[in-house]
Design goal:
With 101 residues, the protein is an alpha/beta fold. The chain has helices at residues 7-16, 47-51, 61-77, and strands at 2-4, 24-26, 39-44, 78-84, 90-94.
């Protein structure tokens, strides 16, 4: 499943990659419309980078709030989050399912 916020972009990729066996949805990553724990893994390529303008180490308060909503929302629907950042950093964060340790 692929999610994006732009109807224009989602429409274009649906057409261009129609042969792929994936879904394309317009959705706000800060308010996902999926059931809890619907996915095992997510790959983020650029979403976090786009949200983290200015300094990664000293983001503006509104950036902290937006990124916090994104991370909190994604963690609800996943058990593992894989961030592939544009600066080639690769980080895997475990997110436990209910009752998990």
């Amino acid at each position: 499943m692929s999610v994006g916020f732009s109807p224009v972009v989602i429409g274009a990729v649906k057409e261009k990659y129609a042969s792929l066996e994936t879904g394309w949805l317009v959705m706000d990553i800060r308010q996902l419309d999926f059931a809890d724990h619907s996915f095992e893994v997510a790959i983020d390529k650029g979403t976090m980078d786009a949200m983290l303008h200015r300094s990664l180490w000293d983001p503006l308060p509104e950036v902290r709030e937006t990124v916090g909503k994104y991370v909190a929302e994604v963690s609800v629907v996943l058990s593992v989050v894989l961030h592939a950042m544009s600066d080639s950093l690769l980080k895997v964060d475990p997110v436990l399912k209910p009752g998990g340790r």
